[in-house]
Amino acid sequence: MAPTSDASAELLSLRKSIDNIDAALIHLLAERFKCTQTVGRLKAAHQLPAADPERERRQIDRLRGIAEESELDPAFAEKWFNFVVAEVIHHHERIAGESEGTR
Ligand SMILES: C=C(O[C@@H]1C=C(C(=O)O)C=C[C@H]1O)C(=O)O
């Protein structure tokens, strides 16, 4: 069944907001990765481990709390965080490998 024109207008308006939110998320992720790349270089320069499980645990606790307050599924928040951190750790390992080659 074709949507009514009211439903089409509402869908269009909601999708405009979704487009803005998706763009904001990409901008935020780009800024986050700029920070973590700098952390990776700092760790490599001082021969610190790529991963910091204690920091990750604290951040997961914090983010799960924020997710609950914001009515976002805390399990999803944790899954998102772990997904991003896995990528960050790959970057850190790559940076450490490159800096080993120059020592
Ligand atoms: C960015 C860091 O490196 C890793 C990545 C983290 C993250 O992306 O939040 C947190 C801890 C570390 O496993 C850090 O130690 O702060």
Bound small molecules, which ones? Answer: ligand ISJ
Name of the CATH homologous superfamily: Chorismate mutase
- Gyration radius over CA: 19 Å
Provide a count of the helices: 3
Stated plainly, the CATH topology is called Chorismate Mutase Domain, subunit A
Number of domains: 1
Which spans of ≥5 residues are poorly predicted at pLDDT below 50?
none
Number of strands: 0
Please summarize the sheet with the most strands.
none
Write the layout of secondary structure elements.
Blueprint: H1 5-45, H2 53-69, H3 74-101
Bound molecules: ligand ISJ.
Structure characteristics:
single chain, Chorismate Mutase Domain, subunit A, binds ligand ISJ, 103 residues, mainly alpha, 3 helices
Brief account:
The chain has 103 residues and is an all-alpha fold.
Describe the model.
With 103 residues, the protein is mainly α. It has one domain: Chorismate mutase (Chorismate Mutase Domain, subunit A, Up-down Bundle), CATH 1.20.59.10. The chain has three helices and no strands. The chain has helices spanning 5-45, 53-69, 74-101. Helix 1 packs parallel to helix 3 and helix 2 packs antiparallel against helix 3. The chain is elongated and about 65 Å long. 3% of the residues are buried. Bound molecules: the ligand C=C(O[C@@H]1C=C(C(=O)O)C=C[C@H]1O)C(=O)O. Residues 36, 39, 51-52, 55-56, 59, 85, 88-89 line the site of the ligand C=C(O[C@@H]1C=C(C(=O)O)C=C[C@H]1O)C(=O)O. Residues 5-96 form the Chorismate mutase domain. This is Chorismate mutase. Pfam families: CM_2. GO terms for molecular function: chorismate mutase activity.
